[in-house]
Amino acid sequence: MRRTTFLFATLVGAFLLLPPLWEVVTSLKSPLELGTLPPLLPHPPTLEPYRAVFRGRPFGRYIVNSAVVAIATTLFSLLLGAPASYALTRLRVRGGSAILFGFLGVSMIPAVSLVGPLYLAIRSLGLRDTWWGLVLADTVFVLPLTVWVLATFFRGLPPDLERAARIDGATALETFLYVALPVCGPAVAAASILAFIFAWNEFLFALSFTSSQAAQTVPVGIALFPGLHEMPWGEIAAGSLIGSSPVLLLVFLFQRRVVEGVTAGAVKG
Amino acid sequence: MANVRLQGLEKRFGETIVVRQLDLEIADREFLTLLGPSGCGKSTVLNIVAGLEPPSAGRVFIGKRDVTSLEPQERDVAMVFQSYALYPHKTLFENIAFPLRLRRVPRQEIRDRVQEVAARLGLADLLDRRPAAISGGERQRVALGRALVRRPALFLLDEPLSNLDARLRTEMRGEIKRLHAEFGTTTLYVTHDQVEAMTLSDRVAVLHEGVVQQIASPDEIYRSPANRFVASFVGTPGMNFLEAEVEGGRVMVGGLVLGLTAPRAAPSKVVVGVRPEDVELGSTSGASGLVESVESLGAETLTTLKWDKGRLVVRAAGAPKARSGETRTFRFKDDRLLLFEPRTGARLQ
Amino acid sequence: MPKASSAQLRSLLFVAPAATLVLAMVGLPLVSILWMSAHRVLPVFAINEWVGAGNFQHLVRDVRFWLALRRTFYFAFCAVGLEVLLGLGIALVLSRPFRGRGLVRTLVLLPWALPTVATARMWEWIYNPDTGLLNFALLRLRLLSHPVSWLGDPFWALHAAILADVWKTTPFAALILLAGLASIPRDLENAARVDGAGSARVFFEVTLPLLRPALVVTVLFRFLDSFRAFDSIYVLTGGGPANTTETLALYTYKTFFHSLRFGYASTIALAMFLAAALSSLAIVAFGGSQGLRGRLR
What we know:
The structure holds 3 protein chains of 3 kinds. By secondary structure, chain B is α+β, with helices and mostly antiparallel strands. Chain B has helices at 42-50, 92-102, 107-120, 136-148, 166-183, 194-200, 218-223, 228-233; strands at residues 4-13, 16-26, 31-35, 57-62, 65-66, 77-80, 154-158, 186-191, 203-208, 211-216, 240-247, 250-253, 256-261, 269-274, 279-281, 287-296, 300-307, 310-317, 327-332, 338-340, 347-348. In chain B, 24% of the residues lie in helices and 36% in strands. In chain B, the strands form 4 sheets. Chain B has a 6-stranded mixed sheet, sandwiched between helices. In chain B, strands 13-12-11-14-20-21 form a 6-stranded antiparallel sheet. Chains in contact: A-C, B-C. At the A-C interface, helix 1, helix 4, helix 5, helix 6 and helix 7 of A face helix 1, helix 3, helix 4, helix 5 and helix 7 of C.
């Protein structure tokens, strides 16, 4: 039994790790070396693709756009989602669980079904090809996730803490800000990271609501690498890796929070 | 039915040694309890005997078989877990029948045996229900039933009563004792509750930090504890301990001479142990002390005395005979005094 | 005003911003979809005329739609099936402690964290017929005699897309199932072993039934995600070759933004939404209530 486990683990491990490793190898090859296979490895490895990514396209601008949109989305989703989540789980709101399930229902709607009218709305608000257009759309669609992840943790808050705060004279808002949020710090961290990852990786809205480097994000940049004939695969690989590094870093540094968030949003729910 | 032999058992988790050089024999049909505080290794020993964990060293014999390398299913043992471990998605009937079904016992026989056990445990009407729908006491009985129905060579019970309230615990204690008398299966019982150990067992093995302190009948454990740990662990309220000096064969606590002779090899400083029921209040001679608190338990009274050598807890039958703040004389029943070596805790005899 | 309802009002204030925003940005578009599907809407030409059920009649006869629908279900079933199986295997491996487990868990998480567009590009490169790693490996291992155009072959393209999706999202399934496994008390598996069950028996009689709620959640969320998958197919094949990888998501998007027929696109969108909703209900009904009943107090 142990041997089959080991075999399975090795195969799955190879399956999961080989493609990104190959991508890294690809990003270090010159265009000439990309034309043939074998050889597998670059002789010698070169950082030229990484430099080429920024030449001839505003990749740096894409990164800035992504950063702004992701950070703003995270902040807004917390600003709106945390109080909502707290109220729905800790303050007795009539129809609270219906609203919570409403959020869940929203998260199950295919975004592509709504992208048409959303585009029209964004356009009529004058937000086409701006940061705020994306922040608006992304915040709306990440809110259910934020609310549910936080809800799972808020539910686990010992009621005695809030009672103690009440006796000490705190209002609901004060209890929320000074007791619930700090105690649920890990949850807030988890929700923030998940929101950031969502907004950073988001593609459909970024593709549909933007048209220029004014607001185009990294995923759009990666998708729009030119080429019918000469696909610069080395650059694409380099660009993908550069573009993925923030989220990779986040997951690597905060993996426990990420795991908590993902499982909270799904299992307990 | 079988006897059990544990030979040189050891269990290490990384750097920590949880069980040290354990040698133990359980006779056929005997009820032996592993008694000790939390973390002393008793549950680990049980898991090793069950086959759920391998020992780091040593062997386990059930009957004539060396089962050390066998899986639990091959050992013919049944276990009752502290959490009962009932399958929540199966009915009570299916829970009790599960081990029989695994052994491919014919369906009719399963039905007969399960119903027989259920009737014996008062569960006959509940067999269609699921564990979530019955009470804690009933769940405990289902766990017992699942073990009983197999008629195994060995019963293993891991603190089965600790999740029950006090009254149910007393009731189930009696039930377990009756079941053992009726079925006679060799039983290894694990608990930290010395009342359970004393009332249920033929013999008790006291465990402390992975080392066996004493294996003896409950009576002997109580009257002749091997060391200070055993003496203090068994008996409620706990034994009183006093520092004493030995001079020329006489044992003295402060100025008070105690009526027992010290053994020749006794060191100059010893610890004297006396059980609360072996201290007499209101004696004509002896020392005197201030009554600090009086707890009346109905059938008996616990009095805490403070004297210049420390505190004493005294137990006497009946209603309180003193009030807090009063002074009382007291004496010890000299033939019940125990002497312990101060450093090692070993009993001096 | 009694104290209770002013507290209610204040609690509602906590919820109001989020709820209003979502209601506005999701509810209104939903209504808009309904409205537009009954109209012929071409924003570019500012055309907006009532056609009643015309779009729906067209939809019913639209072969491209039905193909896309069938393809989408096929994609989702295959993807979810593979992800759940692989994910369960990974979860089982990760559920027992071993040295380096934390590191392995992080590595397993990486595919999930990457932008889908990036992973699609990655797979596109691997699938490259001349210089891709897959053909190279298969030819070397003599499992192929000549290179296959994975993304250019009508049969293989969809399956290539499925594989890419499975690669990216198996970690998510693994995580959820891992959490589900962790919530099964260890004593139950021990009890089964003592009762006489071997490893396989323990798995099928104890572990799997108790894992059911987590499995249902996994299948539900993964199904919905695969059903509406857009990013990777858009990048990998754009729906081609010859629309053979066009899922409902792609078809909807193209009708909105390439053909610019907002009315008809809304009809497709509505159909997609309904298909997703009905499937979710079916999944929950099939797997959910039974599992829940076993765990209700």
